[in-house]
Amino acid sequence: MQHSQRTIIENVAVLSLDEQVGELDSATITIDAGRITSIEPTPENPHLVRDHRAGDEVINGSGLVALPGFIDTHRHTWQSAIKHSYAELDPRVYFAEVLKGLGASYQAEDVYIGNKLGSYAALSAGTTTLFDWSHVQNSPEHSDGAIAGLHESGIRAVFGHGWPTSPDDSWTANSTRPHPADIRRVQNQYFPNGSLDDRITLAMVLRGPEEASPEIWQDELRLARELGLRVSVHTGAYARNAKAAAVQQYADAGLLGPDMTFVHCNHLTAQELKLIADNGGTVSLGIHCEMNSTGVGEIPFHRLLQTGIRPSLSGDTETKCTGDMFTQMRMLWAYHRSTLTRIGPERAAQVPTVTMRDILAYATIEGAKAIGQETEIGSLTPGKRADMLLIDTNALNLGPVQDPAASIVLAAHEGNVRHVLVGGTFVKRNGALTGVNAEALLQEGRRSQQNLLERANSRKSLAGI
Ligand SMILES: [Zn+2]
Q1: Tell me: the pLDDT tens digits for 317-349?
Q2: Which CATH number is 6-67+381-431 given?
Q3: Each residue of 396-409: pLDDT tens digit?
Q4: CA of 317 to the centre of ligand 1 (A)
Q5: C-alpha 323 – ligand 1 centre gap (Å)
Q6: How far apart are CA 330 and CA 407, in angstroms?
Q7: How far, in Å, is the centroid of ligand 1 from the Cα of 314?
Q8: Which of 199, 268, 286, 380 has the smallest C-beta neighbourhood within 10 Å, fewest atoms?
Q9: Cα(234) to centroid of ligand 1, in Å?
């Protein structure tokens, strides 16, 4: 009988994020045909013969902690080549320049390069699944480029098909333009069976009541449901958007559902948060970008918890923050603790307890729920896909470790990530990405960045600015 090659990771500590599997100081993880087939405690008798087969790859996991791959539920991956360029500017400048001028000058190749660069960078930092929130569908070729960039990197991804960036407001201010019909071609061409290579799936990102006219935002949601796609929508960030009362409008139209993920939610009312919870919706907090975005509004983390909503986390736009999930976890914890101080003991007593394990769950299993894939990924569970990262705790910033969850949330970073697997395939091994030459990738990114800036400058000189 022909066997597939298995990967067996021995003597590894496990933070499974699965209640039944729990946490193990030393275990053997067996991976076969892309899935976890067993997680067993290391036998106390070292002479016990292990069930190895010829061809198995055996990894010594001593000093490593295995945890489920991180799941980023909202990333504008197309912007990866212009990262950190809006660090000190008012968020309004980002909206005016990136989402209008620069975005409109993106060619399909820039989207491809941005997505490839962003995906590989995510993998290197232990993010195995990325929700690519792609509001740069300027042409069918832009969509093709986005999918190609995700696919080539080996990451698991949800391609969130959006609308074109445009120099005018026609797509985003009380818009009467329907969602691009090309989404049907994208679905038929790449996702006729639901997924591309069992890794990439399709979703739809919406403008919603904050950016589209009532007829349009209702039609875009109906289209998503006709196509069987989950949706994600920016909601309630910045005071100007609060007036739309988007969630209330969805509810009034009878369209609120468990297939919806709401991003940011800063200005949502208590009633709107309750509507999300009651309808099984999910939330994504782009915590680092939110903290860096003056004027976005108070981060709704505690109000979410008080409503019974456990958030997922996201890297949002790297133009003004970092996309990595270690930072999101660390920022959220610091936000939580500092806010308890700020609001004082009486109000702090009303906030549900948050633990290090909760923070890890937001970055993993809650992310899986927010993309509707919790039966497949988000925890180390026999039967689920083998998406995981292995962190080397023999490092001066982590060791000597007492509680691996605390060490990882408080102090781990990309440099501590020894191995990353997606569907059982090593995408990072011994600290290096397997599928790409990082220097060549950076050169591609630099070329795209220069082209984008040149186009932006020539546009400005044409306009006489
Ligand atoms: Zn966003």
Answers
A1: 999 999 999 999 999 999 999 999 999 999 999
A2: 2.30.40.10
A3: 999 999 999 999 99
A4: 6
A5: 12
A6: 11
A7: 9
A8: 199
A9: 6
